[in-house]
Amino acid sequence: xxxRYICILGMxxxxxxxxCEDLKDTYDDYAGDGPVRxxxxxxxxxxxxxxxxxxxxxxxxxxxxxxxxxxxxVSELSAFDTIVPADAEACEIKGLPDAxxxxxxxxxxxxxxxxxxxxxxxxxxxxxxxxxxxQGFTTGILKHVFIRNNLVLFMNxxxxxxxxxxxxxxxxxxxxxxxxxxxxAFDAGDYLLRDVDPSKEIVLTRQGYLExxxxxxxxxxxxxAKGNVTMMGDFRNLLMERYGEITPELLEMEELExxxxxxxxxxxxxxxxxKKLVLGKNRYYSNGMAVRLTDNxxxxxxxxxxxxxxxxxxxxxIDVYTTGxxxxxxxxxxxxxxxxxxxxxNEMGAALxxxxxxxxxxxxxxxxxxxxxxxxxxxxxxxxxxDPKTRWVPNTGETQRSYNLTIDMQEARTIHGLKIVQxxxxxxxxxxxxxxxxxxxxxxxxxxxxPCHMEENTLGxxxxxxxxxxxxxxxxxxxxxxxxxxxxxxxxxxxxxxxxIPF
Length: 503
Hints:
6-stranded antiparallel beta sheet; 6 helices; Immunoglobulin-like; 4-stranded antiparallel beta sheet
């Protein structure tokens, strides 16, 4: 009985020495040669990514044998050990190479024993120059255009939580170094920076914050490129349809014609000598507006760009052709939102169809593929009679189809272009009028070439609208092939075409 009392008292003494320790953190492992006592484990390990560092946080459990804390960071290529005081519950590990690290925290005894770390690991990756979030951090400048000794900036939105200091460093025309705080440009949205020497380097410096990183980061400097022409896709396509390849000589033009709707007109700034902007001169239909913007958010920018050229060029006239009504999508002297053009806007009325020598189409044939889609009762001359009320209207379908309409003129003829007319339709069919056409020509029906500046050319989608499609140069050919596609409308696909006549 005496020995039994001694064992019980010994166990009570051991429990008392452990105090408030959690049995989950400190326990004996009876294995091998006898009991092995483990250190109290650290818990709730969390990792915060910083600039070229990781910040590690944890909670300690009571353990009188703990002398230090060991923080270990391990990646595929390297490992870093950091020793901190026994009562520490956070540390910052600096100078880590770019990698993803598994981080563990363990209590360390005088004898060098460590606590268990299983299921108590966290991962983190420090921010550095190689991090994609750093490389992809916004420049704040969506687009920039040099106009002689001036710089136009289109700005992104200012994010006060992420963006701190954005400064443009440049040289003025007198050779003086200048620093421009871009906050003013951000507030304006679109900005004209005057008196800039474009031959000198223009550098953007940035400071800001990344999500999840509390450190103020100085991002890599960016140099504003010179000589780049980064036009919007629809603007570039319309320009090439009308004028051909975009060359430095083309960009020196003083008069520019635009005929079809655009998402934005910002790219008129690439024509630094522009004295006249002509809108809708080559649109031929009975009731409608000239060029409209399809992106309402770009109306203010449209006026800004026009006013920039009007100021820098000592005036720029805008001729607007329209047979209907004007609204804020067209250039007018002012719009309902308070945008105002400081130059001259001339209302030109309806565009006049030029006097063209159309070819006599008698005896010509039209082969249409796929043939099964051509409606019963259709005659080839309906596409060649210069009457948009007699039109080709294939059967509607459920999926988009492409059609080839091949005109055989029966003999080789010299032609300069095509008059293409949309069918005269009511609102039920207007949604099927094709938006573009591909034109090819051939002398023998075997070898085909594209006679226009672009393979695919825009068509206005108004009932009865005419398109004057000039070839890049005259062609002596026998065959003309048009390719058009269905449009989706009211859960169906369909196509309508009025006339095709060479001149």
